[in-house]
Structures are given as structure tokens and as C-alpha cells.
Amino acid sequence: MSPDVMRSVAVAVVLLMVSAPLSGCFGDEDEVPEEVGGFDFAYLCPGGIANNTWYHYSNATDATKVSSELNGTSVLVGNNAPSCAIGTYYGVGMTTFEPTIGVTSSDNLYMSSYGNGVGGSTAIIRCSGLIGMTNISDYDCVDVYAPPLIPVVNSNDPYVYVDPWTDRIMKFDMHALAAMTVETSDNEGETWSLLPTPATGTSLQDHQTIASSPYPTPFHPTTWVFCINGNWESPLCSSSFDGGVTWTQQVPGAPLNCGSGGLTGHIMGSENGNFYRGNRGCDGGDGYSVYRSTNGGLTWTEHPLPTETTGTAETWNFEEAQVYPDSEDNVHAMWMGSDNMPYYSYSMNEGDTWSPPMMVAPPIGLNGTGFPVITAGGPGQVALGYLGDSGGDTWNGYLTVISDAFSPMPLMTTVQVNGWGDPLDTSEDCGFNRCGGFGDFNDIIIDQHGRAWFGLAHNVGGEIGIFGTMAIGPSLRGNGTLSEIPSGGPETL
């Protein structure tokens, strides 16, 4: 047994021991310690804990009301130590639909915007000054899509992706379910490729997702792969080894005769060159799987997630398990269980085995959640985003940060990015269905400073695109806390 596998098994055993006393699903709730020990959360923030911030362990166990000690030793040490956290959001000034986002090493944030570009095209919104700002007036969001010739007509599913290894921006448009076009920018959106590149497709094109990784190629520093729902037995995927100029013929995104269905969560690339995405398992049953490619998207293998105890949701976005590798190639996954709550698990061996699942929603009695997204920074440092109904179809955006997922008792810090009285949507069952600017999916990333940015729409405010985040909180790259930025909110819409 390799050292990585031994470590994964050891941590999994510890998590099982810990999750039993913490989880009403996997253990006896009466075993949870009732006395606070080892840490006093009351003094984390100068004014006390905000009313839309929660510190908790798995299965909505309130960390402020139970012991933080395990075998007489506090678990709230190192990256697992709590820090003051405040949730907020910032408007981009334009509407969005199925917002995809990206960030460059120049600290610019990007978001796609349906129909708001030149000539009614897809806009690519660049927000400058948002990262590291000291005053709300410091940031500015503008459409930077200005093609040298004719703008590409508006896309059914607008999509933007920023290559983390090269900063190349890819504008990826789907047209009437029939074709894909790709345009790129290598200078923060200031100029764009002369002509759009047709991406390979021989089937219905829908529900696309795209990512890059440093999989070796002599023609470009990174390999690009996109996958779509072609109404086939599995997703169909195509690769580019020259930065999006040419694309291979589409191939199955799962083993042959898999039968997973074509809908898929976001594809992601890893430092080691692998690609990962999540969707239904091959048997077509109730489980989710992560699908892995080690050869640039040409073939895929199935790696089932531990959904036996959680079940899977039967909502609009039921098919999507989300996945993201961290900086040391550990793989982190998120899905919605049959109770419509968000669950999380990690793998230290590229998806071959997984930790026991942890329910990550905060201890506030959410009626249901949907639209899962996940991202990772440093090893074991993860951010999970989702919508949640706090009662009466009041749908809010939740951002849960786990700054040490490998701790024997991981602390979860959750913020509601919108304040009370400022819901993102009030429609019946919004989080379970296609809903306003949320469309089919949202997006999430972590910038180079360790701050997570959750791409959403403020439907009540007019389907305006927003970046949800923590104005202050734990960093997800290395140890320590984020530098504080001013809170936003409705005034930024």
C-alpha cells in the first residue's frame, strides 16, 4: 500500500470516529459533547459573530456549543483554527445567466453576461480593483469583449474560463444547440483573437463546460478540454492541444457502455495534468461518480463517490456532482443528497478512494439547498457554494469554507453572502429548478491571495451578476487570514 493510500485510509478512519458523535445521520446525537471546551468563539470578531456567519462541524453541529477537544487536545489549531468571517457580495452592473467566472494573476475578476455585449453578443465583464480594494469606489466592472471584426452572435449558454496556468481568457459560446465557437484573449480582454474557432461537434451541443491543465503538449503550455451533453449515454468531450485553435473529434466522457447520461458538472484540471468532472454513475442508479482523464481528455475512467449513506437529490440539477483538485492534486467533491443538503468528500489518490461524506450546511435549519459549486486552493483548503432556503422560499447564497479538510475534526466556516432582508430569490423551489439568472449552474474560484469568489445572480435585484465572498475570513492558500475589504451589498447592484 502506498504512503498516500495509507494516509487516506488513516484519515478516513479518524473521520469515521469523529463523524459518529457529530452526525445525526451516522451516529447518536446524544454523544455530542454539550459543554464548550478549548475555544471561546465570542471574541473572534470585535463586534461579535455576525448574524449571517456560523462556525460548525459536519452535520450542522454548532462549534460554539460543543467541545473543540478530541482526546483531550484541541483540534482548532493550524489551518483548522477559526478566524473572524463576514459574508458579503458585489454587483457587476449587468445581468447574468448561468454565470461562469475566472480570475487572472493581475487580480482581475471575470464573469459572463448573456446578451449584454456589443450587438447583443455575450459580454465578458472584467471587474478591476475588487481584489484588495480599500473603498467600494475602488472597483469597476466593464465589458471587455471587443472583437476585431464581427462580434459572435449571442450564445444560448454563455461561458467564460480563465486558464490558471497561462491567464488566457476563453470565451466559449454555444449556438442554438448546434455548434460551438471559441475566442481567446491573452491580455486581460484588451484584444481578442481575429476570428472565432469552431469547436468540434457532431451531436447536439448543450450544457457545456471547459477547463485546462498542464497536460504536456508541444504546441501550448496547457491542454484544454470541453465536454457537452449531446443527448448520448454519456457526456461527449473534445480536446485542444494548441490553446483552443483546433479541437479533436468528440469522444465519450466515460467508459464505453457506461450509461451515465450526458449532463455533467464543471470539468476541472489538476496540477499533475489530470482532468476531472462529476455526474451520475455508470449504472444509471442513485450514485454519483467522478470521471478522470489522465491523457488530455481522450479517455475517461469512473470513480464512484461515497453516496451510499447520503443518497442523491432528485431536483433540476440532480445530475451534477462538482469536483475540484487542490494545489497538491488532492481531489475534492460536492453533491446534493436525497435530503437536498450539500455533502463533501475528498480523495488523496486521484479519486480512487474517498473520505466519509460530511454534510456541510450550517446549523440554521435550512429547508433545502441546490446549485452546488466547489473550489480548492492549498492542500485541504476548500470553498463550497450553494443556494439555501432559510424559510418561506427565501433563497440565499451560502459560502462554506473548510481551511483544513484533513483535520480529524474539520471546522467549517459558513457565511450567507447576502444579508437578512436581502434575498437572492423568493420563487417557490428556486434552488431545485432552473431559476432566473442562476440558469442551470453557478461558479466559484479562489484568487491567488486565498479568497473565494462565488459567482451568482441577484434575481430580486434584476438578475444582476454578483460576486459573493468573505470581506474577512480564513485564507485558502497557506495559513492565516484574508486582508479585510469593505463590505458590499445592495448598494453595489
* Strand order of the biggest β-sheet: 2-1-29-28-27-26
What is the straight-line distance between the termini?
54 Å
* Major beta sheet summary: 6 strands, antiparallel
What is the tally of beta strands?
Answer: 32
| Integer-rounded radius of gyration | 21 Å
- Under CATH, the topology of the largest domain is which? Neuraminidase
Instruction: Specify the helix fraction band.
Output: under 10%
> Which architecture name of the largest domain does CATH use?
6 Propeller
Query: Which regions have little confidence, pLDDT < 50, spanning 5+ residues?
Result: 1-36
In short:
The protein has 493 residues and is mainly β. It has one helix at residues 3-22; strands at residues 53-57, 61-62, 69-70, 73-74, 86-95, 101-103, 109-113, 123-128, 140-143, 159-162, 169-175, 179-185, 197-199, 209-213, 223-228, 236-240, 251-252, 268-269, 275-280, 288-293, 301-304, 322-325, 331-336, 342-347, 358-359, 369-376, 382-389, 395-402, 412-416, 443-446, 452-458, 464-472. The chain has two domains: 1-82, no CATH class; 90-381 and 418-480, Neuraminidase (6 Propeller).
Structure commentary:
This protein is mostly beta strands and 493 residues long. It folds into two domains: 82 residues, no CATH class; 355 residues, Neuraminidase, CATH 2.120.10. It is built from one helix and 32 strands. The strands form eight sheets. A six-stranded antiparallel β-sheet has the order 2-1-29-28-27-26, with no helix packed on it. The protein has a four-stranded antiparallel β-sheet with strand order 5-32-31-30, with no helix packed on it. The N terminus is likely disordered.
